[in-house]
Amino acid sequence: MAVFTTACPRNCYSTCGMRVHVEQGEIRRIEPHAGNRATPEGVCLKGLSYVERVRSPDRILTPLRRNPDGVFEPIEWDDALDLIVENLRRIRDESGPQSILYYAASGTKGLLNGVGSSFWRLFGGCTTTYGDLCWPAGLEATRLTLGDNRNSAPWDIVNARLIVLWGKNPAETNIHQMPFVQQARESGARVVVIDPRRTETSESADLWIRPRPGTDGALALAVAHEVIRRGGVDLAFVRDRVHGYDEFTALVGECTPDWAAAIAEIPVEQIRALGKLFADARPATISAGFGMQRYTNSGQAMRAILAILAITGNIGRPGSGWVYANLQSAVFDEVKDPVAFYPPENPDGVIRVSISTARLGRDILTQTDPPLRLAWIERGNPVTQNPETNVVLDALRRLEFRVVVDQFMTDTAREADLVLPAKSMFEQTDVIGAYWHPYIQLRQKVLDPPGEVKPETEVYWHLARRLEIPDEMLRDRIPEPSDDAIQRFLERRLEPFDGLSLARLRDGPVLPPGHEEIAFADGTFPTPSGRIELVSLEAGQRWGVDPLPVFEEAAESVRTQSAGKPYPLYLMTPNTKNRIHSQFGNLQMIRRLDPGPFVHLHPEDAGNRGIVDGASVRVFNDRGELRIPARLDHGLKRGCVSITNGWWISEGGTVNFCSAGRETDIGHGAAFHDNLVEVETAG
Ligand SMILES: Nc1nc2c(c(=O)[nH]1)N[C@H]1C(S)=C(S)[C@@H](COP(=O)(O)OP(=O)(O)OC[C@H]3O[C@@H](n4cnc5c(=O)[nH]c(N)nc54)[C@H](O)[C@@H]3O)O[C@H]1N2
Ligand SMILES: Nc1nc2c(c(=O)[nH]1)N[C@H]1C(S)=C(S)[C@@H](COP(=O)(O)OP(=O)(O)OC[C@H]3O[C@@H](n4cnc5c(=O)[nH]c(N)nc54)[C@H](O)[C@@H]3O)O[C@H]1N2
Ligand SMILES: [Mo]
């Protein structure tokens, strides 16, 4: 039995280090890797289900072409590559390379993902996407405030006396954070959860606050008001490290607990209690989730939340700080997943057009110069995961040719003319970073790809040869299709960094060069003022928002909804324990536990509509609908309904039938949580 170091490359906080036992070409056992201090318990159920996933009978093992009757048939690689090249050449000649869309999302982490971008650059450019579905409002809010997305090591939270899990549900989405939180609590820390839903995380809170969705900004400003009123400000820290405190104080002077309680629809005592905790308990850590920053006002909300840490001096000290996205391992640009947050400004002299990820469907439909004709989609499932599914479907169907690279026949793959089989994490070596812990890890090849599966790098190499891109252009950009070439390619990427090599990574996870255990411990902040910015002129200039983190209602709110739009319920679409977005749900091991979608409703909201537990209901708005069973949930805030995201249309429908394609106030994120619906008994 051979044992290999590897790591889970899913888009997940934990990014577990693991050791896999392989015998006769099969994975026999998966166990924790002791070298990853953040994930000592090893993988979750999804991780264990890899044993099934790699050998799943549903895996795509050959290229598949849709025949005129709409049926997918296996074809030879040579024919598939010829077909792609014929379409690429024709469309490039007729209307330029920008009439081709390259869309890649978050299906797997890895340095080699960058090979796709290199290919399209060598091809002469293409249309790409900017922004991201996941986290940009918070990333940009953090960058504007602290100058950088750097957090203290995950294990430092044990030193906190106050932990606020703000819009985060780590018991499901970051399970390895929970033992550290529990350890802090056993040493006397208080734990606060801020979430409109009852979750596994809120069950363990000392204080659980349920704001109306999209009102965290108001709550944060009122907490700051209360901290100031109680004399809880760290004046020395503010004097030395904070820019804009006076203007901020003037702003929050009017943001009383009563004001915020009316907006967030929570008891005023809870705001006072949280203000008191921040005023009294030091050090304090806020671990902010990604879910709450997908509203049209949430960039500003994240800045307001950060301000609480700034005025209480809770940055740069053990047990204190901001846990959001710890990009210390992102020493290679390619590991930043995804690479492009901003529309590219003519990199490499190649003209690139870029469309918004949040408005993917609409932008595909409306782009005219040139119009889009072909899409290449890999590592993503935009039909279920991007906003406004009906528009995404319409947009994809209007294209002339679609290539989708995936392991499974997803709702997006079903829209393709040609589906290419994708490797699994065990079938090609790569180097990955993470966004919660700081480690750089090796995702090691331990199996040969099954059937006719080829890693993407190999597909790009073959395409490049067929397109007659000269060899010297490929060097260092597109590795040859051999394990040796991949290793040399990765080794060259690691070379510039002290202490990083494949040999070291084979032993276990490695801390990145220059790793800071306590982020910002030296008190310097790479912002324009060199301090933590509560007033950010850049926020105003770049994003057109108020330089102070003022609160405004989200675009889709029951309070500002125009007359004639009878959608009174907030549709929440969080993540869930046993899937990563649209992945894993197709495996027997997972399906047994989670066979299909439900919409959670508060019993009162259900009762008002004559809906009983288990009834089949229609969840709808102007954009679309789902028909699924109802489940009554006493822990949900009244006026909210909730369906976890990631279900396939074939399983009952994606939540994104109802969501809107809109960007967040800052950062080009997707504000699809601004989403009002109605629910009625299905006829
Ligand atoms: N309404 C709503 N929608 C949401 C969210 C929400 O909260 N609410 N969450 C959003 C968030 S946070 C995210 S990150 C996005 C995720 O959206 P996507 O990045 O589109 O995510 P996945 O569902 O993980 O789909 C990735 C696909 O990649 C495939 N894949 C896995 N490994 C490989 C590989 O090595 N090669 C190739 N070619 N394919 C591979 C998988 O089989 C899967 O089909 O969804 C977003 N969508
Ligand atoms: N098991 C599992 N783990 C995952 C993932 C997964 O799909 N499955 N996905 C990974 C990825 S890509 C991401 S982005 C992260 C996301 O993981 P988290 O950061 O935990 O984010 P979400 O689950 O989207 O939302 C967290 C909580 O925010 C609450 N929420 C929604 N709106 C509001 C609001 O307006 N205010 C407040 N205070 N709370 C609100 C939701 O009810 C939810 O319980 O998880 C990662 N880890
Ligand atoms: Mo995400």
Can you walk me through this structure?
Strand 23 and strand 24 form a beta hairpin. By secondary structure, the chain is α/β, with parallel strands linked by helices. The strands form seven sheets. The protein has a six-stranded mixed sheet with strand order 5-4-17-16-15-6, covered by helices on one side. The N and C termini lie far apart (58 Å). It contains 23 helices and 26 strands. It is globular. The model is unreliable at 334-346 (pLDDT under 50). One ligand MGD is lined by residues 11, 105-108, 133-134, 290, 378-381, 385, 405-408, 410, 422-423, 456, 573, 580-583, 645-646, 655-656, 659, 672. One ligand MGD binds next to helix 6.
Query: On the 0-100 scale, what is the average pLDDT?
Result: 95
Tally of extended strands? 26
Kindly report the spatial arrangement of strands forming the biggest sheet: 5-4-17-16-15-6
Strand content: 15-25%
Tell me the span between the first and last alpha carbons: 58 Å
Bound molecules: ligand MGD, molybdenum atom
Uncertain regions: pLDDT < 50 for 5+ in a row?
A: 334-346
Overall, the morphology is globular
Backbone structural class? alpha/beta
